[in-house]
Amino acid sequence: MAINSHDTNSKHPMLLLEKEIKEKGVICLENIHSVPSYTEAYISPFMVIGLSHCGETEVEYDMKPATFSKHEISVVFPNHILLGKSTSDDYTASLIVVSNDFFSQLRRRATFRNHLAYHMEPAFRLNDEQYESIVNCFNLIKTICKIESPTKTAMLINAMDILSQLLDEFRFTNSKYTWTSNEQVFIDFYEILIANYQKSREVKFYADKVCLSPKYFGTIIKQTTGVGVSEWIANYVILQAKALLDNSARLSVQQIATQLGFSDQASFCRYFKAHTGISPKAYRIERREERKGS
User: Fold this and answer.
1) What are phi and psi of 189, to 5 degrees?
2) What are the pLDDT digits (tens) for 122-163?
3) CB 74 within 8 A of CB 122
4) Which helix (H) or strand (E) holds 76?
5) Residue ranges of the domains in the chain?
6) 25 vs 19, 28, 60, 235, CA distance in Å?
């Protein structure tokens, strides 16, 4: 079946239900036929476990090409960069979306122990028996999400833990994925970037955090991901800036500059224009006009 590109996808359930996801901790979404965005890179604040039933969708995941196909399971951790490229007409998936607070509870239980592999390659294929097992897990979690019980949170944590252990086992069996020390450096860097992008945009700052010289650190990141450290930092800052300009209409450009850690509005505007080609104000107007026309 031919792959067709999509336009903006502002009505994707993940975008419409962000408040509910934060309140409930875990929600299940069925009959999903697309990814959240095809026009702007999207940084999800949630962990998303996607089970593809049929068709395929092509994306950029952390600025690298990736494909989610029939009977593949994907685990995308919070704060990674996702941009939809194209999706087949028959693409259908189920999603389990986990809030950041609930994800923190899972991490304390060492759930998704093989998280480094998911950071580097979020998807892998299931055989028919494994696929049916994961469908059953999804159905169990969906059932728990619907009930009202004082033990609901504990049941969800236990069910998610079982799901994660199955996925870790299936991934090891199917892909034999191994990672290098260089990939560990990248994961450390990425998590440090998430926590500190408002504080520093300097390569040396992040190199110091992982106890490497800036030159060697830059070489490792470039060799591991194909993208330089400065580009990683700039892309992440710009994506956060765009999100604020798009979704926080009450914030002035000055307030956004302050929130992102810039010393003043002028330095933020220079940085934004250097990496996008337009000013923050022009970007905001452009996006407002796009929404009017859609």
Assistant:
1) -60, -45
2) 899 999 999 999 999 999 999 999 999 999 999 999 999 999
3) yes
4) strand 72-76
5) 3-175, 181-293
6) 10, 11, 26, 28
